[in-house]
Amino acid sequence: MGERGGGGCCPPMDLLRSEPMQLIQLIIPIEAAHQTIGYLGDLGLIQFKDLNAEKSPFQRTYATQIKRCGEMARKLRFFREQMSKAGLSPSTKSVTRADIDMDDLEVKLGELEAELIEMNANGEKLQRAYSELVEYKLVLQKAGEFFHSTQGSATAQQREVGSRQIGEESIETPLLLDQGMATDTSKQVKLGFLTGLIPREKSMAFERILFRATRGNVFLKQVVVEDPVIDPVSGEKVEKNVFVVFYSGEMAKKKILKICEAFGANRYPFTEDLGKQAQMITEVSGRLSELKTTIDAGLLHRGNLLQTIGEQYEQWSLLVRREKSIYHTLNMLSIDVTKKCLVAEGWSPVFATKQIQDALQRAMYDSNSQVGTVVQVIHTKESPPSYFRTNKFTSCFQEIVDAYGVAKYQEANPGVYTIITFPFLFAVMFGDWGHGICLLLASLYFIIRERKLSGQKLGDIIEMTFSGRYVILMMALFSIYTGLIYNEFFSVPFELFGHSAYACRDLSCSEASTVGLIKVRETYPFGVDPVWHGSRSELPFLNSLKMKMSILIGVAQMNLGIILSYFNAIFFHNSLNIWFQFIPQMIFLNSLFGYLSLLIIVKWWIGSKADLYHVMIYMFLSPTDDLGENQLFVGQKTVQLVLLLLALVAVPWMLIPKPFLLKKQHQDRHRGQSYTILQGTEDSLQVQENHDSHGHEEFEFSEVFVHQLIHTIEFVLGAVSNTASYLRLWALSLAHSELSSVFYEKVLLLAWGFNNVFILIAGIIVFIFATVGVLLVMETLSAFLHALRLHWVEFQNKFYEGDGYKFYPFSFALLGDEEE
């Protein structure tokens, strides 16, 4: 849910229940319809109902206008893609509404698109010609070098052979010379050749296929091109080789041409004449220079055009999105029989009535309509949407609740309590004021830069963290608070608020924390005394404190959930839930676990060493036995017997009466409708509707009873399991503290003990990465998920149904950048 209700601060009391809603009907003159919907979109406080749900999108009145807006949106997306490719971005200047005619905008966008497409096509042709000339130049250079070196070596070989023949004349030599001179020159074989470039990754396969296709009757020479070249076809940089293939015969040539085509080899003409080669290189270089100048001028012109588009892109995009959303909303309205008015129905908050009337009045004046819009409230039994006025601080906490389920209309909303209880439960598990400061700095970074970061596209994880920046802020503050209570700073205790109240009796207790100590000063003023950290001989006091506090917190929060169910029952006038749900649930929960919480507090108060596990177990197994040394107050056995009896009575109290009373209510309702006096047409119609919808429904007593049985069993077993589930507060707090101690003692202190600078630096680096990666990331996520579970399951299931639906008003402020 977005941050609705403005950026100002809204009191948390606004979140207790959803805003009162009303279903209104608007009868809008057709000439003022567009202006009216536009003003209501600016207001953003009406959720319109679709009165044409049976029609397809193509059958609706304004389908043509929506298609037209969709086409303009497509052109704008095309412009954005082109700007992105050119490395440009739309202007981020504040967008103000301007009076731009949609017809003029449509024509302008069409002209700009045609111009840009033409420029792209011309640019692609020029770029392709330029790439081909670059490749041709490479072929001329590389193949020319090959032919030049080959001709030089051939000439040298001929001279060497001639000199040998003159110097080594024999009897047979004239015969051979005569035979060679007598050979018919018409029978000499003329070799052809092809030149071009081929991607380097395909060169080996190209050589193998040539050899197999021609059975080895070709000669292939490849030369590596040092720098990648732009391929004329794909437009991408590719590493290539220049090749020269010598062949004999037309059949071999045809095969080579097909293979070149199959491998994507680009072929270029080449001459053996060295003079012509130099002339062609000069001509190609001149054409390359001309093309380069032309391409640069085209890119400059295209960049100027895209920059001009970028300056107005956001304004055009906003206007098109507004128009499309207006026509989409108009398609949800029905046309009356006279075809002069549009009829709209929608939900709006009661507080917005005056604002809606003002917007309708302005729309009538601006559209020069002779008739104003008629507004009337429709009375309906349909459940309204739930709307909570939130701001940027409270919206993230409301999202935590909505992720479980949206509150039913006027149902008690857990969001207002979640603002405090969620970060507090997180901090109970995460309590360390050193780690809390790290979280605080991270949250403050996002909060200070929120205006800049909110307009940027962040990654998924960063986006999620940024959206929950105020939740992290509260979690950090509560973690610092609980960390001060636990007296842990990266697992190290400090005497921040004074000296420890305990000291060693003698030197034998120097390594202990709870054995051999005597109290020498006043009690440590705030939090846990530093001396209570680190005992391994028995359960540390701090861990015992955390375990018992987990139970106290859990029972308190579950009681809060049951109390909220009482307020729900009062609000919805459900007396059965008060008598047969709230009261027995409070009795059952507090007879057992409320009593356990009381024992914990009394034990702390009087400093007793009673075994509370023994007390609770034998409260059920042997309720009449004497408590002995486990007795904490006078009359405890009697109190336990009474509480046990109340807990046993509460179970059938929840189970049995309610189904029978529901059956009696159904019978009375049916009987009352059968004999209702008809006082008028509207009343008779209403009674008939109720009679049709409820009177003939059969009351399935067995289903109701089974449902109540399941509900009772779920609560009884849930009371036990939910209380045990709150012990995760103690378990995760212990795990966090122990992990922090391990990193401090086994990494940082161990590295310090080597008295080596390099080992110390390595230890500090490992300690930082371990603290950030494990304690500040993984442990934060773990504590967050466990706090989430405690709210969703242990707390909210006591009172929260969460079967409502959100209020989604028609608002231009909620329009996204993407087309739907």
From TrEMBL:
Q: What keyword terms does UniProt attach to this protein? A: Coiled coil, Hydrogen ion transport, Ion transport, Membrane, Transmembrane, Transmembrane helix, Transport
Q: Topology versus the membrane, per the UniProt entry?
A: Multi-pass membrane protein
Q: Name one GO molecular function term.
A: ATPase binding
Question: Signal sequence: where?
Answer: none
Cellular localisation: Membrane
Q: Does the keyword section mention Transmembrane helix?
A: yes
* Membrane-traversing stretches: 424-448, 469-486, 549-567, 587-606, 638-656, 757-778
Q: What is its main location?
A: membrane
Q: Does the keyword Ion transport apply?
A: yes
What is a single Pfam family found in this protein's UniProt entry?
V_ATPase_I
Which terms does the UniProt entry file under GO BP?
Answer: vacuolar acidification
Per the record, the coiled-coil ranges are 95-129
The record's Gene Ontology cellular component field reads: vacuolar proton-transporting V-type ATPase, V0 domain
Q: Which InterPro entries match?
A: V-ATPase_116kDa_su, V-type_ATPase_116kDa_su_euka
Superkingdom of the organism of origin: Eukaryota
As for family, the record states:
Belongs to the V-ATPase 116 kDa subunit family.
Q: Say what the protein does.
A: Essential component of the vacuolar proton pump (V-ATPase), a multimeric enzyme that catalyzes the translocation of protons across the membranes. Required for assembly and activity of the V-ATPase.
Name the record gives this protein: V-type proton ATPase subunit a
Source species = Davidia involucrata
